[in-house]
């Protein structure tokens, strides 16, 4: 309302976000991360087989395996959590828009 210009909710929500594409992007992101994880794991397996006679390889695996499994858990679980949160926010936005539409009708 400064300088005689009135702002409305419609002006601020002019951009129509495509939430389905965000979820699709998240799934593509997860797939890309899983492929990277599989490639890294395959390389480590090949290196471990090649250098198994060295004692440090066995000790490195003691640390690598839990970290690798944690990375897999993070890729699978965290991205699912993000998808769930996005869907929850989408539902809240739809409820808010419906509430605004009801208020405008009154």
From TrEMBL:
Transmembrane segments: 34-52, 58-76
Keywords annotated in UniProt: Membrane, Transmembrane, Transmembrane helix
Protein name: Uncharacterized protein
């Amino acid at each position: 309302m400064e300088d005689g210009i009135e702002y409305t909710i419609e002006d601020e929500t002019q951009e129509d976000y495509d939430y389905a594409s965000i979820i699709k992007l998240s799934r593509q992101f997860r797939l890309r991360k899983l492929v990277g994880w599989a490639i890294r794991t395959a390389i480590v397996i090949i290196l471990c087989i090649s250098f198994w006679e060295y004692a440090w390889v066995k000790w490195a695996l003691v640390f690598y395996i839990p970290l690798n499994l944690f990375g897999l858990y993070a890729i699978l679980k965290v991205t699912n959590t993000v998808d769930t949160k996005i869907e929850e926010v989408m539902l809240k936005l739809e409820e808010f828009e419906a509430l605004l539409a009801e208020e405008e009708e009154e």
